[in-house]
Amino acid sequence: MRFLVQRVKEADVTVDNQVIGRIGQGFLVFAGISAADVEGSSPEKIADKMVKKLLGLRIFSDENGKTNLDLKSVGGQLLIISQFTLYADCRKGNRPSFVNAAPPDAANRIYEYILKKCRQEIPTVESGSFGAHMNVSLVNDGPFTVILDSNELNLQMN
């Protein structure tokens, strides 16, 4: 599972010229679910650990200008967009392969689970439309971008 996290001043997502999600200060998160995530017996456990890590990220400035505050501390909001292309394999040729991405039904189930878990902790959690062509706009704050990967965080379970 991969989360590409961008600290933003604001962000929104549009489908068919309609804004379907909009946030102020917080995180814009692109969430990718791999085939390996859904093949195991505990994709929800991996998602739980990824959400915990996401919500615990201390990348907002405190009164001394140090990145020391998490999302809750600043009253931040979340916009979470499903993005299977985070599992693009570009090693061969010029056209990415997406064989490492989870099948759509399984990925959507885990994406919805991630949204549910985040909504239990953060008052404002907006989302994209799974599988739709989306236009995402943001004002990146920093810029500050972090990648969380369940394999690198030793969160994969068999």
Task: Note down, in words, how this protein is organized.
The protein has 158 residues and is α/β, with parallel strands linked by helices. It has helices at 35-39, 43-56, 104-119; strands spanning 2-15, 18-23, 26-32, 60-61, 67-69, 77-82, 125-127, 135-149. Strands 1, 2, 3, 6, 7 and 8 form a 6-stranded mixed β-sheet that branches. The chain has a two-stranded antiparallel sheet with strand order 4-5. Strand 4 and strand 5 (67-69) form a beta hairpin. Helix 2 crosses helix 3 (104-119). The longest helix has 16 residues, at 104-119. The mean pLDDT is 94.
Order of helices and strands: EEEHHEEEHEE
Largest sheet: 6 strands, mixed
Strand composition percent: 35-45%
Distance between the termini: 14 Å
Question: What's the alpha carbon Rg, rounded to whole Å?
Answer: 15 Å
| Helical percentage | 10-25%
Number of strands: 8
Query: Number of helix segments?
Result: 3
**Structural class from helices and strands?**
alpha/beta
Mean pLDDT: 94
